[in-house]
Amino acid sequence: MTIDLLLDEGFGLDVEAHWGAGFLPGRYLPGTPSWTWPELVTPHLTGISALLDLGTGEGGILANLPGLPPFTVAAEEWLPTVPAAAKTLAPKGIRLVVCGGGQDNTNPDGPRRVGLPFRDSSYDVVLSRHEAFDPSDVRRVLKPGGVFVTQQVGADETASVRALCGLDPKAEVWDLAESIRQTEAGGLTVTASGEERPASTFTDIAALIGYLRTIPWSVPELDRDTMRSTFERLHTQGHLEAVSHRFWLTATRAH
Fold first, then answer.
1. Is 30:215 a contact under the CB 8 Å cutoff?
2. Which of 14, 136, 165, 231 has its CA 20 to 30 A from that of 67?
3. In what order do the strands lie in the sheet with 199-202?
4. Are residues 180 and 210 in the same domain?
5. Are residues 104 and 229 in the same domain?
């Protein structure tokens, strides 16, 4: 395929309707860590009565977890994915709440956002998969003894795709150590964690551009015309290698 056709495809993708780069199957190949989300979450579902999932997206990952409690609530901020989430979650009896997301973890000292619209001490388990979170607000809605489980995309992933494009890395720190620091500063106790950086692949520049358009805050320089020479260089390389930066932790509210 010619470079212009690939540019047309990458910049023409409806990334709002298909958030998360799932729109080019087989062309964006994220690295796979040694753990899975169900493996992290399922051990904490036994015997609980209430669960909250932050940033549920289109709802499929939550809906496919085994052993969800009778009262399961999904929260989502991104309006384009809400119809798909409602369609997926309603048959499972999962309640969907449209509300603001958490604090930007890469800027923890920035302006505070409105807190989660849930009562204090309401949930046995709170989940956050690839979603920003405010640890103090998570602690507030957790019951005493409750568990928080999160998997995050680390800053090294953005740094790797910026490097592909010849851009300077952003001065962001978002890794396991910083996540633990924020979580414990918010009043939770981290009990387990892990971090890996497996390789990822973009088979062509359309896949890369589509991915970059889902993270506009990380690559604000993205522009078809001004980056034309960069795309021409990358097009000649064929497959493009980057990094998938993933980390996770579990934490508890003691009292």
1. no
2. 136
3. 28-29, 199-202, 240-243
4. no
5. no
Contact 250, 184 (CB under 8 A): no
**Residue 159 and residue 107 in one domain:** yes
Residue 217: domain span: 1-30+204-238
CB atoms within 10 A of CB 148: 29
Query: What CATH number did the domain enclosing 183 receive?
Result: 3.40.50.150
Q: Is the pTM of this model over 0.90?
A: yes
Reduced to 3 DSSP states, what percent helix, strand and coil does the chain have, rounded to the nearest 5?
Answer: 30, 25, 45
Tens digits of pLDDT across the chain (255 residues): 899 999 999 999 887 765 555 567 789 998 999 999 999 999 999 999 999 999 999 999 999 999 999 999 999 998 988 999 999 999 999 999 999 888 889 888 877 778 899 999 999 999 999 999 999 999 999 999 999 999 999 999 999 999 999 998 887 899 999 999 999 999 999 999 999 999 999 999 999 999 999 888 889 999 999 999 999 999 999 899 999 999 999 999 998
Residues 6+ apart with CB under 8 A from 232: 3
Mark whether 64 and 137 lie in a shared domain. yes
Looking at the fold, whether 22 and 49 belong to one and the same domain comes out as: no
Q: How far apart are the first and last CA of the chain?
A: 59
**Do residue 228 and residue 161 come from a single domain?**
no
Domains: count for the chain: 2
The partner residues of 193 in beta bridges, in order of sequence, read 249
